[in-house]
Design goal:
Mean pLDDT of chain A: 95
Shape of chain A: globular
Oligomer: homodimer
Strand order of the largest sheet of chain A: 1-2-10-7-8-9
Number of helices of chain A: 14
Structural class of chain A: alpha/beta
Distance between the termini of chain A: 50 Å
Order of helices and strands of chain A: HEHEHHEHEHEHEHEHEHHEHHEH
Largest interface: A-B, 25 and 25 residues
CATH architecture of the largest domain in chain A: 3-Layer(aba) Sandwich
Low-confidence stretches of chain A: none
Number of domains of chain A: 2
Largest sheet of chain A: 6 strands, mixed
CATH class of the largest domain in chain A: Alpha Beta
C-alpha cells in the first residue's frame, strides 16, 4: 500500500464537495504587523461540524460500499472526529458508535449527539479508548473508522491544503497543528503534489511532543498520556501518518501551554474568529519565534472552532 | 442641506478605500436551517478597529481641510467611534480627544489608547458626555466629530451596505442595529440608491427603544439613560439621522435583553465569529420572529466585534 497519490486527493475533493464547506481564507493586517509576516488563515473552524475532520470523515464514509457500512461505523475520538463521523454517517444513513474520553468538552459531546451519534464514554487514556472501542465493535460489528490512521481520512484532510493552495498562490510556508497526524500528513501530501516549493512546518504542544520526538529521532515514538490544554493534539502519530510526515514535512516545532492560550486569545481579539486551543499552536509557534517567519507568506490551517464558551482557558485560569 | 446623495456615498467609498477593509461576507448553513432564512453576514466585526465606525471616521477626517484639523478632533463615544476616530486622526497625523463614559468596556478604552487617543472619562449619561465634551473643546479648540449626527459620518457608514449590495444580489431585506442611527441611516440610503427593491429592517433593544418609538409615533423621541447590555445602542437618534430613518427604513423591531445574549452566543457557537452585543440584536429579532423572515434572502450588517473576553454576558450572569 502506497501513500495517497495526487489523484486520490483530487478524487476526495470531488467526492466530499456536496457535504463540506469551501471554507473562507481570512487575513488580518494587524496580525500581520504584530507577527511580521503575511498570513492567510484557512478557516476550518468554519467547516461543517466545526473542524477539518468533516473532510476525512466524509471522504471515508462515502468511499465505502453499502455492504461495508450496513452495521454502522465506530471510532474513538476526543470530539471533532466523532462529530464529523456521526454527521457523515447520518448523511449516508448509517449508525455511528463513538467512544469518547469522559473529559471531552461538553460542546463536542453535544455535537456528536446532535448528529445522532451513539456515545460510549471511557477514561481518558489511549488504552481505555482502544479497549472500549474493541468492545463496541465486538458488540455491533460496526466498521472502525480510525481518526487518522487511514488513507481515506488522510486524503480527505488533504483537501483543506489543496483549497488553500488553489486560493493563495506562492506560499512560502504552510502550517498545521499535529496530533495524530491526519491533518499534517494530508497537508504535507497536498503541498508536495500541488505546491512543491512551499515548506510544511508543523506545531505541537511541548507537553505532547511525540511528533517532534519521532521526527528528529527518526523513529516512531508514541506519547504516553500527554497533558496539554490542546485536547485535539493529545493523540500519537499513527503507523500511516508517521512515514508521510517523516518524508514530506520540513520542520516541527513545539510551543508552551502558556503561549497556546495567548495565541488563541490573540486570534479571538484581533481577528474576531473563534478558534480552539489545538488551532492556536501554529500561531503560538510564530509568536515564540520558533522558525524563520519574518516577511514570509504563510498559510495556516485553523483546524477547528469547537470551544466550550462556559469554560475559557483565560477565565478558569484565574 | 439635503441628505447624502448616491454620489456622496460613492465618493466616500473611494476616499476611505486605502484605510479600511472590504470585510468578508460569511454564511452558515446551520444558522440558515435554524432560522429558516438565507442570511449573509457582512462582517464589520472584522473591520479596522473592530467596527463599521472606521468607515465614517475615515470619511469625515479625510474630507476635512488641514486648516480645520490643525487643533485635532474631539468626540464623545462609548467606544467604537472613539477608537475609529483616534485611528483616523492618527492616519491623518492629528490629535484626537475622546470623552468616554467611565463604564466603557476595557477593550474599547485600550483600543482608543492604542491609537494614541487622549481620553477624558465622564459619568455614563448623555448630559455628562455632552458637557464634558464641550469643556474639552473649549480647552483644545479641536473640531467635534459627532459619532452619527454628521452627513460625512453617515455617508461613510453607508459604504458597508453598498459593499454588501455589490457582493450579494437581490437581497429581500437588509438589517442593521440602531443606536444613534448612523449605520442605519447610511444603510437605508445605500439601499434606497443601490438596491431599491430591498427592504430595510432595523433592530433595537426593548430597553433602548427610542428609534422604535420615534419611528412609529412619527416624531423624534430621545431615550433617557437607557439600560441595555448592547452598549453601542444606548444613544438616541440624531436630528440628521432621524429624518433619513423615517423616510427610508421600512420597519423597526425591538428585542429583549435575554434574546440579545442568546443570539450573540448562537453566532459565536455556530458561525465561529466574535460579535458584540450590539451586533446581536438583528439576529435576536429573527429568533424572536419579529418580522416575516421565512425563506427571505437577508443581509445583516454585523456592526462590531469588540468584546471584553474576560467579561462575557453568559459567564457574569451566572
Amino acid at each position: 500500500m502506497h501513500y495517497p497519490l495526487a489523484i486520490n486527493i483530487i478524487e476526495a475533493a470531488e467526492r466530499i464537495k456536496p457535504y463540506i464547506n469551501r471554507t473562507p481564507i481570512l487575513t488580518s493586517h494587524l496580525i500581520n504587523e504584530l507577527l511580521d509576516a503575511d498570513i492567510y488563515f484557512k478557516c476550518e473552524n468554519m467547516q461543517k461540524a466545526g473542524a477539518f475532520k468533516s473532510r476525512g470523515a466524509c471522504n471515508t464514509v462515502f468511499s465505502l460500499a453499502d455492504s461495508e457500512l450496513q452495521r454502522g461505523v465506530a471510532t474513538h475520538s476526543s470530539g471533532n472526529h466523532a462529530a464529523a463521523l456521526a454527521r457523515a454517517a447520518s448523511l449516508r444513513g448509517v449508525k455511528a458508535y463513538m467512544v469518547m474520553p469522559e473529559d471531552s468538552s461538553k460542546v463536542k459531546v453535544e455535537a456528536v449527539k446532535s448528529y445522532g451519534g451513539i456515545i460510549t464514554f471511557c477514561i481518558p487514556t489511549l488504552e481505555a479508548r482502544e479497549t472500549t472501542l474493541q468492545k463496541v465493535i465486538n458488540d455491533t460489528n460496526a466498521i472502525e473508522i480510525h481518526p487518522y490512521n487511514n488513507y481515506n481520512i488522510i486524503s480527505g484532510q488533504a483537501t483543506a491544503a489543496k483549497e488553500l493552495i488553489e486560493d493563495v498562490k506562492d506560499l512560502d510556508i504552510i502550517m498545521a497543528p499535529v496530533g495524530g497526524g491526519g491533518l499534517l500528513s494530508g497537508t504535507a501530501l497536498s503541498t508536495h503534489y500541488f505546491s512543491p516549493n512551499t515548506k510544511v512546518i508543523a506545531a505541537e504542544p511541548e507537553q505532547a511532543d511525540d511528533a517532534f520526538q519521532s521526527f528528529y529521532q527518526h523513529k516512531f515514538i508514541p506519547s504516553i498520556n500527554p497533558n496539554t490544554i490542546a485536547d485535539g493534539l493529545r493523540t500519537s502519530l499513527g503507523t500511516l501518518t508517521y512515514p508521510i510526515i517523516r518524508d514530506h514535512v520540513h520542520q516541527i516545532v513545539t510551543v508552551s501551554e502558556d503561549s497556546i492560550v495567548k495565541a488563541m486569545r490573540l486570534v479571538w481579539e484581533r481577528m474576531k474568529i473563534i478558534i480552539e486551543t489545538s488551532s492556536a499552536v501554529t500561531v503560538a509557534a510564530i509568536m515564540e519565534n520558533k522558525f524563520e517567519h519574518h516577511n514570509q507568506k504563510i498559510g495556516i490551517i485553523i483546524s477547528g472552532g469547537n470551544v466550550d464558551l462556559d469554560d475559557l482557558p483565560w477565565i478558569i485560569s484565574k
